[in-house]
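Q: A reviewer asked whether we had any structural model of the full assembly, not just the individual parts. We don't, so I'm hoping you can provide one. Inputs are below.
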Amino acid sequence: MKNLRYLDNVSTLVLDDEKCVGCSLCTEVCPHAVFEMAQNRALIVDLNACMECGACVTNCPSGAISVSPGVG
Amino acid sequence: MDEKDGCGQDGQSTPGVNIMASMEGRGPSCLNVDKDALAGHEKPGFKLCSYVDSFSETHAGRIPIVKSGLGKEDLFSTVYVRWGIRRHDYKVVPGLYGIGHPDRASEVLVTANFKLTFDHLRRALPHISAWILVLDTKGINVWCAAGKGTFSTRELVKRIEACSLEKIVDHKRVIVPQLGATGVSAADVKKQSGFRVVYGPIRAKDIPAFLKNNRTADKPMRQVTFTLYERFVLTPVELKNALKPAFIAALVLFVVSGVGPGGFSFSGAWERGLLAVLALVTGIFSGGFVTPVLLPYIPFREFAAKGIIAGSVFAILLMVAISSAINGMAGFGALFLFSMAISSFLAMNFTGTTPFTSPSGVEKEMKRFIPVQVVALAVSSGLWIYSAF
Ligand code: SF4
Ligand code: SF4
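A: Here is a predicted structure for the entire assembly that you could use as a starting point for your response.
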């Protein structure tokens, strides 16, 4: 997907790293490699690749992630 | 498809057979009766699906074993589905199936009941023995169904229970395609069914490698692609969806084109109307086919802007081709703007079909470009009527 990118600075993805328990499920479900694990915490490494599909939100066991497409 | 389809409560599950519909019924998916597979399993009013190879007796009843190879009917249905023809007929009855020689240790692969998804999966498993749990997604593919909420935690839990999966396998694990993750919460499935969700790769063709690799996917297996071919196969439906509005637009164009110095003239409507319809068709071709296929090669991130670029190129080509038939700059301007606006609109429409456009981005793009398209259309109509005088 490197040659196909959509608009920058629009994704409403927010990660609360205080809440992250380091399960790494978000890195598994995200189809755009938005997250990476660093020192047992999830890290957003490519926010602009996020398509707001919500897979990470639905699967994060600690409620550390949110997306709110259509708001704002 | 109602709840009764798929795994029956009585343990007599018959998900491989469909109730015979009326003669013009189900289309090619269930036509051929394989006599050997059905021997001893006949039921009045039921007919074997062409993709079922045999049946396997389990503690939870009789489970159809499907073929890995695709038959002629399957290939036909692919063509039909791509063109959006009788799309609703291409469902697989939800429930449990097997492939190869599945046993109590075999993995359970979860999928959607869209015929193409199902075919794709079984074709990717030529030497694999596994169970295939088909969810009722109303005949829609995994990703779209997950977004719509039919490929869901609830449906998965329900299907696991209905099929008595715990009687079929000794482990407590189901492999869910990664693109289904939007609709499925692994934690909730575990809580409600006892089964642990393992997310499999995005593409069915990676499943053998994923299984061999102890159910781990490497990074490329986890990332979506949107290749030229993947974009190309989506365009027939884009074009088909444009047909009906295009037809109405063409009627309007003929009427508008008839307005001239002497009021309304039929010869004007016909001659000038044809030119306008040519501009319309050019715009549809540019926005509904060329822009999607050449997506990464056209400048700008916004699809509507890509549509303007492609639309302008094709509009200019059209102008050159029909220049002798148009007199005056107003006529040229009208057709150019019209064709370009149509291309931009259809290109923007394609944002709904791609696997990388965020709704927030699409909203931003629409806010910016719909006004541009509307103004272009308004100016174009004005110029077109003016050019008749
Ligand atoms: S919303 Fe989807 S694309 Fe965005 S980070 Fe989450 S999983 Fe990835
Ligand atoms: S899914 Fe949630 S808890 Fe798990 S690593 Fe990602 S952010 Fe952390």
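A: Points you may want to mention in the reply: Chain A touches chain B at residues 1, 3-8, 10-12, 25, 27-33, 49-55, 58-59, 61, 69-70, 72 (CB under 8 Å). The longest helix of chain A spans residues 25-29.
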